[in-house]
Amino acid sequence: MPLPPMPSLTLTRRGVLAGALASLTPGLLRAQDDPVAPLVAQVSTDRLRATVEALAAFPTRYTPHPDFPAVEHWVATAFRDIGVGPRALAYHPFELEPGLIRHNILAGDPADPRGVILLGAHMDSLSEDPMRLAPGANDNATGVAAMIEAHRILAAADLPIGIASAAFAAEEQDYAGAAALAGLFRAKGWPLGLMVNLDMLGRTGPEPGAPFWIEADEGNLRAENDAAAQAAGEIAALMAARHTDFTIARSDIWNSDYMPFEAEGYPAIGFYDGGAVEGDPAYHTTGDTVDGVDFTRLTQATRLTVATVAAIALRAV
Fold it and tell me: Start and end of every Peptidase M28 domain (predicted)?
């Protein structure tokens, strides 16, 4: 991911736009009636840490590396370990280059007739020497950890909408995996209502209180998905104010795995820690290790993911 555009507005926990607050139902404003809070409370920092540590322990997760299939297998096993059954777990192949097949891992039912919210995170990594070493702890073991943890909670919550999660290969190769899966969603006519991208969630900038970014589509290739994406972004900002201590920055979507979904006409939003914006020296280097991950920040990002998806699914705003 390169640097994003400048944010269009900034919100703090106590400074959410009055008009947006007015859209909340009275029940949500009373904590005891908040249907989202019990789900948010289930987020486990220990689970997040275990996933990040396991993924970063691979010497490299560079998609062209011959050992990358072991990464795919690990992620599929992680989904099985949280209760995703064999009928709800699939390897979706694509050709990265002639003769080189890689797979996205898809959990959940993408054809759920009630409609689907898709969580996505890329499982591959990059560095200055990716065929030798690319631990990718923040970029993007953190996103995968948040996705698996959010799927564990949301899939068990009996929500009135389907929840699916996709671990993408080859984000660092022009989103090749996401492009293949987005095209499959369109070809199959799967009822995707929103794509939520999780890419780099556990770094803080050099200044205290560095903002966390909520990204929502503002144009790009398809105009017809803008309104839904912007509405989802507003809900995410409200959930950040309600369920995290983040200061929020807002921007368009940019240069990650939501872009192929936007190009297919699906509404897309994303969450991002802003590390590259602040000049993170570990970005795309062999120094992107577990020691540099802020697990408190990752936990809050996962809480935000759970809260946003649950609020949309339950129409709690």
Answer: 110-307
Mean pLDDT of 232-255: 96
Residue 4 domain flag: no
Kindly tell me if the per-residue pLDDT of 6 is higher than 70.
no
- Give the side-chain half-sphere CA count within 13 A for 77: 9
Asked if 248 contacts 237 with a C-beta cutoff of 8 angstroms, the reply is: yes
The answer to whether position 253 is within a domain reads yes
Looking up tokens 């190009």 gives 263
**CB burial of residue 54 (10 Å; 0-12, 13-18, 19+):** middle
Whether 175 is covered by a domain: the verdict is yes
The domain that holds 235 is classified in CATH as 3.40.630.10
Q: Which amino acid is at 271?
A: F
Average pLDDT over residues 58-68: 98
Q: Which of 146, 163, 212 is nearest to 312 (CA)?
A: 163
CA dist 181 to 87, 190, 260, Å? 18, 11, 9
- For the segment 124-177, what is each residue's pLDDT rounded down to a tens digit? 999 999 999 999 999 999 999 999 999 999 999 999 999 999 999 999 999 999
| Amino acid letter, residue 80 | R
pTM of the model: 0.90
φ, ψ of residue 233 to 5 degrees: the values are: -65, -40
Distance CA(28)–CA(21), nearest Å, equals 10
**Residue 219 domain flag:** yes
Structural domain count, the chain: 1
- Contact assessment for residue 152 and residue 306, using Cβ atoms and an 8 Å cutoff: no
Mean pLDDT rounded to a whole number for the chain? 89
**Average confidence (pLDDT) over 58-79:** 98
Per the CB < 8 A criterion, the answer to whether 187 and 92 are in contact is: no
